[in-house]
Amino acid sequence: EIVMTQSPATLSLSPGERATLSCRASQSLVTNLAWYQQKPGQAPRLLIYGASTRATGVPARFGGSGSGTEFTLTISSLQSEDVAVYYCQQYKDWPPLTFGGGTKVEIK
Amino acid sequence: EVQLVESGGGLVQPGRSLRLSCAASGFTFDDHGMHWVRQVPGKGLEWVSGISWDSGSIDYADSVRGRFTLSRDNARNSLYLQMNSLRAEDTALYYCVRDRGSAGISPFDHWGQGTLVTVSS
To answer: Does the N-terminal or the C-terminal CB of chain A have fewer CB atoms within 10 Å?
Structure first.
């Protein structure tokens, strides 16, 4: 099983600041990595796939990077509507398809 | 517009069974793999089971293997999860999820709103 580890658990930033979220895989994913955003009371939403490709309708302030075992989700200028939990997920190998534990992004 | 509408959740006693359904619309159902992902309220996401477009590939998380059965009916644009021998640890919100591809190993590009399963005596 590929284990996904996210850090930090919580990120508290002011509006307009840059948010950097990390995701590490226990083995190489190449670029088979997705990021999801889950706002309070809502289902998750696909943000990024292929490690760096934005899904349809995702604002340009969201960017993904990385390959192999180290990945990063960046929010270039944090907005109030970005308050959410962000999950990474590997789809390199199944079963199982695995998620990280999530990073909660808060506004200071 | 892609829609995934789950049903069948509810309160059930340990050891009993429940069948979840997912009605899909707004896309060509048999072009896509489908999955169930669950989430204990306030906790993270756990993949439960996935199925390829033609049911040729089906697999399960170890935590449910042998107890849950995933199936699909492409003629009815529907996905099903038969859950037997339910345990308290199966209590969660169950999401029906569309795979971006057909084989069942792509990102999840559409999610339903979920159906809550509570296993308790």
So the answer is: C
